[in-house]
Amino acid sequence: MAAELAPSTRRAAELGVDLRFYGEVERLMPLAYELALREPRTAHGRVLLAERVRGARGRHGRIWVAERGGLWLALSLYDDHLPQTRGLFSLLFGVALGALAREMGLPAHVRWINDLHHRGRKIAGVLIEKRGDWLVVGIGVNVNNPPPHHLPAESLARLAGAPLSLEDLTDALLGKLRYYYGLLRELESSLAPGEDLPENPLVRDFLELSDTPGRCVAWARDLDRDPPLLGRAEGVLPDGSLLLRTGGDLLTLETGEIIYLY
């Protein structure tokens, strides 16, 4: 007899029900959106996995090397989320990755808003695009693939000291995504229109898994192009926003990216 799902997980049980595998593709996220338009009935929660992604991209069009041995995933979700939970939607994917690494006993941390890293070397990244009525989420995890030496990257297998099962890791990550996406849906169901977010387990778990609070950071919407703001990360608000103290000001940052200065 199957164990009963927790209430939060039941709210996200559709994640991965439609699961499709590809050997090699040019890019996964545009394919996920194309399939959402062509086959919308099962698109909410659909997951695409590829062995290799030739033209993978990260934030702001940066090249992401997605060779065989890594976990390359695209997820499509119908966008009926509340405006006040947008930041938590972005945050939950980093929390899921961090919880997975902690469960594996690996020394990785989440860097706001959803990067998984080890000593500044990136293990996993998340890209979220709003496309029409859909949110398309790309997740890339370095697992057994050796990261290029010229990039500040790390892999889970290198941290673990042995190759890892991609199948088991995929199942485990989908379980974490169902749990945290379910928590978000549960939180949304309890909110009145326009109501401020209360303290919540998504931010609580982020703070347990992250090494961002207390760090001196550089922040920008695009660190490659925009002049950065330098400051100290003071904490994270219930909506997932970062509190950055710069000079005498305390800024609330809803989006963007950071690097650690020290």
Can you describe this structure?
With 262 residues, the protein is of the alpha+beta class. The protein has helices at residues 7-10, 29-38, 86-103, 156-160, 166-189, 201-209; strands spanning 19-25, 46-53, 71-78, 109-111, 115-118, 121-131, 134-141, 216-220, 229-236, 242-246, 249-253, 257-260. The chain has a seven-stranded mixed beta sheet, with helices on both faces. A hairpin with an 8-residue loop joins strand 8 (216-220) and strand 9. Helix 3 (86-103) packs antiparallel against helix 5 (166-189) and helix 3 (86-103) packs across helix 6. The chain is globular and about 50 Å long. It starts with 6 loop residues before the first helix and ends with a strand. The mean pLDDT is 94.
Shape: globular
Query: Which radius of gyration do the C-alpha atoms yield?
Result: 18 Å
Q: What is the number of strand segments?
A: 12
Stretches where pLDDT falls below 50 for ≥5 residues? Answer: none
Average pLDDT, all residues = 94
- Class from helix and strand fractions: alpha+beta
In DSSP terms, counting alpha (H) and pi (I) runs of 4 or more, how many helices?
6
Distance between the termini: 51 Å
The topology string of helices and strands comes to: HEHEEHEEEEHHHEEEEE
**Order of strands side by side in the largest beta sheet?**
1-2-3-7-6-5-4
Instruction: Provide the β-strand percentage band.
Output: 25-35%
Largest sheet: 7 strands, mixed
User: Level of helix content?
Assistant: 25-40%
